[in-house]
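[#protein-structures] MJ: dropping Pirin family protein here for a structure pass
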Amino acid sequence: MDVPPVGAPAEGAEGPASRVVLAPDDGSLGPLLRIADDRLGPGEGYGRHDHRAVDVVAVVLAGGLQHRWGRGADLAAGDVAVLRAGAGLTHDEVAGDRGARVLQCYLRSAAPAEPAAHGVHRSAAGWVDLGRPDARLWVGRAEPGEEVVPPAGLVLVAGDDGVRPHDGGAVRTSGAATVLVWQLDAGRPSWAC
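AK: finished. structure tokens for Pirin family protein:
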């Protein structure tokens, strides 16, 4: 699987400011390999890089991001893009004029030999169809002081001050936030035994 090294930009690029939120290396979160909170300045990109045998779910929290592969796609805050690298691809993602903040979520591919594909869920709210049976993503938004009751699962709250896990129950934040819930088939994969 081609998952960029923790904290390392793609070859030939300065790269984004990246903070790893989760990176279980023991298979305890099933297909979920890593989540990084990336911040890119205006016009900054990752640099052309390769992926294979991995799905990358990009949750755009702020700004805009241009995906450069195939027909390409312009992403805005609230959009969720699903990149299935399958047998392999080379691509880049470049921030718009206001920069970008994006959660890059890497999952072990459910179809590593399939051709690469890319899809965008615009202004995602509620359940996002990832097209795989072992991982589900729910996205919600919380305004300052608003209470959001997310479904059960691995709950993450992304606010201006970073991304933090939430232990359950209602989420109430002092500022605007995006609430993510991952429901994962956490059975240990064969490679983790």
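MJ: nice. The longest strand covers residues 89-108.
AK: one more thing. The radius of gyration is 16 Å.
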